[in-house]
Amino acid sequence: MQKIIKIIILFIFLFVLGIFYISLTRDTNYNTSSLINKETPEFKIISFDDLNYYTRDDIKKNNYTLINFWASWCAPCKVEHPLLMKLSQTKNLVILGINFKDKEPQAKTFLSELGNPYDLLAKDKNGKHSVKFGIYGIPESILINKELMIIQKFVGPLSVEDYNNIIKIIE
């Protein structure tokens, strides 16, 4: 009986050790490359003012659309905001801002203080729409062309290099 208990304990130990080893060797980096050159998912998201909905049809008529997920409580969103303001002045690009799990008064204050770079403004109060776009955190941005294909995805705040890359693509 004692031998059976030792074998069971050894088996449990090896099982736990195996799980631990597998979890250590697994690549957990967030990789969005599989989304590139894929079609934008279907969506119907409510506008920030609750007056209408935006769908793929609203971005299909644009040469390029940058979908930016942001929130007033997000410090990196404030970091990227000046670049979004610069991008808002370019032709060939429409920016759809999706306010993510935010409180409306704080979001309005954020935009009134820093400026509103968004041509279209929507809200994702519970985070369901962000999942469709493969959003893990914010800020994240997705550049889409007229054919509704994802050209590029930017994880984290936009950098000057990202800005220059977007300008190069849309011109």
Structural features, described:
With 171 residues, the chain is an alpha/beta fold. It has a single domain, classed as Glutaredoxin. Helices cover 40% and strands 22% of the residues. The protein has six helices and seven strands; from the N terminus they run H-E-E-H-E-H-E-H-E-H-E-E-H. The protein has helices spanning 2-25, 56-60, 75-87, 104-114, 128-132, 160-170, and strands at residues 44-46, 53-55, 64-70, 93-100, 120-124, 140-145, 150-155. A five-stranded mixed β-sheet has the order 5-4-3-6-7. A two-stranded antiparallel ribbon has the order 1-2. The longest helix has 24 residues, at 2-25. The termini are far apart. The model has no long low-confidence stretch (mean pLDDT 89).
At CATH level 3, the topology is: Glutaredoxin
Structural class: alpha/beta
- The number of helices is 6
Q: Widest sheet: strand order?
A: 5-4-3-6-7
Secondary-structure element pattern, one letter each:
HEEHEHEHEHEEH
* Proportion of residues in extended strands: 15-25%
What Rg do the Cα atoms give? 22 Å
The count of domains is 1
Largest sheet: 5 strands, mixed
